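A quick aside before the break. I want you to see a complete sequence-to-structure record at least once, exactly as it would be stored in a machine-readable document. Don't worry about memorizing anything.
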Amino acid sequence: MMLKSGVQGGILLTGTQPGVKNIALEIKKENSEIKPQVSGNSVTMNIQIQLGVNIGEENDKNKKFTVGNGEIRMTEDAASKTVKKGVEDMISDMQKNYGVDILGFANAIYQKKPNDWKRISKNWSSIFPKVKCNVTADVKIYSSGTIVPKGGE
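That is the input. The structure line, written in tokens, reads:
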């Protein structure tokens, strides 16, 4: 999910209220970067994710989605939080339940901090579950298309 640059598309479900997923966003552009920090045997991954999306569908029967009253910004903020939480949950699951670095953290250290990798690589299986992750996500809506009220009113 979104930790490897080059996602070719997809749908992100979100909403302007916590826990409500009534807006489908079409992912048009994705960029992510993993920056490792190593101090002794302590590793922190700073993960930045940027998504460019279009509004694909809005499905709220109780109100009309309008572009002019700040709902675009609210949707971007909610989508950013959705992505951040999804990535954090996935990382935590990989660390706690599987202990397998399918996320590319080891490769990021090897590529960007080879001397540190040489020193910690032998202990990676015990270090990986303790890696701290700082995730930031920024979702920008490129286009809302033509938003038509339900029933074509």
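Two observations worth writing down. The beta strands are 11-14, 23-39, 42-58, 132-143. The first helix runs from residue 71 to 98. We'll return to this after the break.
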